[in-house]
Design brief:
Elements (H helix, E strand, L loop, with lengths): L1 H15 L26 H17 L4 H24 L14 H14 L4 H24 L8
Helix pairs in contact: 1-2, 1-3, 2-3, 3-4, 4-5
Length: 151
């Protein structure tokens, strides 16, 4: 579901082009003069990620509510990463190893530990594996034309 939460916004952007692409932060700037999140964090992406996870969770008997919350927490973790990167002066396309991966995996997996019969050690392992897969596979996906950035 982590892959769905983070892949659905990309698919939605490709399918819907410029429609519903309003940024979650409304284009506002933080007092440091930098964007709060940036234009790549859109309502379209947030809704697509949540609905996709909700539908998947429903189909595999985890419940739509669980999926909606899981998707939201993953994308919220991604927004936290973006917020921190903007405060560090990094562009939305800049690479920030581990910061780009861990919050979007840790928040929903922490929820899964509370909601499901899942051990904490398994959630930590899944978060690390998700981060490593993202780090190692992103360059390949970039070469295949699936990602716009090699990281």
């Amino acid at each position: 579901m982590l892959v769905l939460a983070n892949g659905a916004p990309v698919v939605a952007a490709g399918l819907l082009k410029g429609r519903w692409s309003q940024p979650v932060d409304g284009g506002r700037l933080w007092p440091d003069g930098r964007p709060v999140l940036g234009k790549s964090k859109t309502w379209r992406g947030l809704i697509a990620g949540c609905l996709t996870c909700g539908a998947f969770a429903f189909l595999v008997d985890l419940g739509a509510f669980f999926g909606l919350v899981f998707g939201f927490l993953s994308l919220f973790g991604d927004m936290i990463s973006s917020f921190i990167k903007r405060r560090m002066g990094l562009a939305s396309s800049a690479r920030a190893l581990w910061l780009d991966q861990i919050p979007e995996a840790a928040l929903p997996l922490g929820f899964a530990v509370i909601w499901l019969p899942m051990d904490l050690w398994l959630a930590v392992l899944l978060a690390v594996l998700f981060a490593l897969a993202n780090i190692l596979l992103s360059p390949l996906l970039y070469r295949l034309g699936i990602r716009r950035q090699p990281h």
